[in-house]
């Protein structure tokens, strides 16, 4: 039973990492080479040979990293279920370019219903 649980966690972790990497690369115009998500969901990014804790990224890049994680979770857990996705000020620290990239990515996710609350234009 424990072995089966470890296998499920491992598969979930691998798929989660793969999806986070894909979203984050797209959001950052491939400025980063890799994302590593730990079992406790702490994230590190690799840029070239340097591995950086997610927390030292700029506020905008850190928010892109966490948006990537949220989208990856949504995709994995709810991919076959139609449900609303609600984002509340998810882009507050984004510049116009980051906001545009994030919205483009979210629209391509083809959620059945998407509600975005924002203080931005």
From TrEMBL:
<protein>
    <recommendedName>
        <fullName>RecF/RecN/SMC N-terminal domain-containing protein</fullName>
    </recommendedName>
</protein>
<dbReference type="InterPro" id="IPR027417">
    <property type="entry name" value="P-loop_NTPase"/>
</dbReference>
